[in-house]
Amino acid sequence: MKKKNTLFTSMFLVPALALAACNGDGEAPEVDEGDIPDAGDEGAADDDAGDDEVDEGTSASLQMGTGSTGGTYYALGQEMANVMNEHVDYDGFSVDAVATDASVENIARVSEQDLELGMTVHIPAIDSLVGEGDFQGQEMENFGFMGYIYPETNQIAVLADSDIDSIEDLEGRSVNIGPPNSASQGAARLILESYGLEDGDYEAFEEGFGDGASMMQDGNVDATFGLLGLPATNLEELAAQQDIELLSIDEEQLDEIEANSQYERITIEEDSYDFLEEDVEGIAAYAVLIGSTEDIDEELGYEIVKGMYENSEEVSHNQGEHMTMENIMLGSEDLPLHPGAEQYFEENDLLDQVDDDEDEDEDEDE
Predict the structure, then answer these.
(1) Distance of CA 199 to the CA centre of its chain
(2) What share of the chain in percent tops pLDDT 90?
(3) How confident is the model over 68-105, as pLDDT tens digits?
(4) What does the domain layout of the chain look like in residue ranges?
(5) What is the value of pTM for the model shown?
(6) What SS3 state is found at 15?
């Protein structure tokens, strides 16, 4: 059941300076490659973190998976960790934000008890529960939803003086589709496939959006995809150096994507960027926080949600403005709730937000 598209539209109308989503900075702890579907090889070992045990099954020293170098997930995750460290009322608690390949890796590693917290787009999280999408044949569990973070929209940049006027023109071109195991790459492939473009129909590069933008500026790729905050700083910086455009998704392909995925259409308003001359049609999703149900017990889960969301105004990153009590349940539909988060949501009458959204959707269907 789909949520109302107005949720996305209203949130994207608020100006917010953001870096490219699913790109981060720092080092990710080492994990057995067999534990991660199609695991990438980025990251280095961090063997000492997360070893201090307070109670059986609950670590006081946690790690939160973010994204790859230079983008929203890592930058925002660092600030979220700072807020948690300041306000989570639990003996011996600490959390470090670590760089990963973002959504898919974070889900897998939280499920496999290699990370305790993770940032992810809600759609691969849903896929992981039933072994679909990037998790084909590998069902993930042992994690629960802990709160909404911010809205993400797919953006496809090309140079304005190129002869690329539409997504179908990317056939035979060099295209940066985003890092392995990222929701950015999953969304890019979904869009390209809606135009009949499969692997081999274009030369694929698998870099973060910031690196992809630099490669496009240097003439090494023709287009770069990213599931980003809005507006994206990397795009604004690129536009200051080169004349660029964003490609729109056509109505037919939007209909197909909405019918076959949980992405929703979103209009990127002309005034979102100085370089835009008209509205651009794209697809959008929710970034959410998940936590281990094995390594984070109900008491700690409750305190994490309470400490983070009751003090979210201390996050200076502009995407932090979305982390409000009014938005906290966005992206939770079809995901299990972490028991501690569920207790907090119930005590604060927040579970009604999901019920209200479902009732509105049913009224629309009628």
Answers:
(1) 23
(2) 69
(3) 766 789 999 999 999 999 999 999 999 999 999 899 99
(4) 5-150+288-365, 153-284
(5) 0.78
(6) coil
Q: Helices (DSSP H) in 242-297: which residue ranges?
A: 251-260
Buried-exposed string 56-87: b where 16+ CB fall within 10 A, e elsewhere:
eebbbbbbbbbbbbbbbbbbbbbbbbebbeeb
Looking at domain 153-284, its CATH superfamily turns out to be Periplasmic binding protein-like II (3.40.190.10)
- Could you give phi then psi for residue 292, rounded to 5 degrees? -70, 135
Question: How many angstroms separate the CA atoms of 28 and 44, rounded?
Answer: 5
Please tell me what DSSP assigns to residue 345. Answer: H
CA distance 176 to 362: 39
Two structure tokens written together for 304: 């994490």
State which residues of the chain have pLDDT below 50: 1-56, 358-366
Position 16 scores a pLDDT of 34
Q: Which residues have a Cβ under 8 Å from the Cβ of 352 and sit 6 or more positions away? A: none
Class of domain 5-150+288-365: alpha beta
The pLDDT, as a whole number, for residue 159 is: 97
pLDDT at 273: 95
Would the CATH topology of 5-150+288-365 be identical to that of 153-284? yes
